[in-house]
Amino acid sequence: MTFSMRPTYHDARLAGLVDKLRAYLDGELADYERERGITPATRLTRADLEPVWQRSRALGFYGIHLPEEHGGQNLTYTELAALKEEIGASGRVLGHSVLGDMGGPLRAGDILRHATEHQLNTYFLPVVRGERACCFSLTETDAGSDVHSMRTSAVRDGDDYLLSGHKVFSSAGPFADFAIVVARMAETGEQVGDKPQFSAFLVDLDSPGCRVTDGATPMSGEHIESDIILDNCRVPASNLLGEEGEGMRIALGRVTVNRLLHCPTALGATRRALDLTLNRTRTRTVAGGRPLLALQAIQHKVADMATEFYAARSMTYAALAALDRGEDVRTEAFMCKLFVAESAFRILDEAVQIHGKEGLTQGNEIEFLFRKIRMFRILTGTSEIQRNGIAHGLASLG
């Protein structure tokens, strides 16, 4: 994989998809955002998002990774990653809604294969069609990296379950119709040995006993998070995903793939920052009328930035290729998440430095990208958690 600020692809299908996606992102979607005055700080509504879901679906992008029977094109992980990278590199605020990351089929992820026919028809297929939206609710205030310490509970009550607890950081929650909620079983027989049992449920967010409130605003300034508060919320047994006690396996079973697929989005944002920085160094002049890029100190900075980006991108796509071959890439996924997060942060830090005061100014794209990338060192597992996973994987090699 050679270095490029605008990758080209030898595979005709992927090249065509990338060209079509770039045209949509830079043209129609850019116009839509401009007409509505949408910025990263905009409080997005269903009225803002549904037209993007529907248009992306009509263009073939929404749920494109899915099998053909669900209206997708059965993309490989590498192909999907290439599209996610382009979205990250586009600078589009609503890019997260084009493939279905924000409340759409990518948010549901691999969970679709655990759904019953009723659950598919009532919940997931409408999501695929852009008619409904979902969020994933696992995290709690004191149950982040240690998800097994969650306190949200589920009690069987006849043909239903009663759920109680407080979930936080439910991305897409402000405009979702239902949540995939993981809860601790809190009735007799809940444990096997000393281990608590967890189950996953589809919870309609307009159900009695369920409240959706504004979540904490992350440092990126985006209003995409919500808290989900459950107080004896009655959920029909038909909304149990899989079997009782399988909730954590269902929830975490998607983590390795998701961890790896978050990397291309971060790489795209980093590519965007590098491109903006190169443009800055070519057009900004210093004493004597020379461009910044004429200074050796600046040349060394951008050389290091490009080299780190190339390394991070190369290892990510190598791991994706292995995943497409059916190989176990758990350790590599930890490595990619760690290296992409840390190298992207270093690149963005240098980008701010090169932009000077403008890079510190709210409303400047580099300043926003810096905040966004800083979050990636924590989201979807902190860098420390990734190191734990790498060390565990190395220990198992014997």
TrEMBL record:
Highest rank taxon of the organism: Bacteria
Keywords assigned: FAD, Flavoprotein, Oxidoreductase
First-level EC class: oxidoreductase
Ranges of residues in domain Acyl-CoA dehydrogenase/oxidase N-terminal: 18-131
Entry cofactors: FAD
Positions of the Acyl-CoA oxidase/dehydrogenase middle domain: 135-232
Identification of the protein by name: Acyl-CoA dehydrogenase family protein
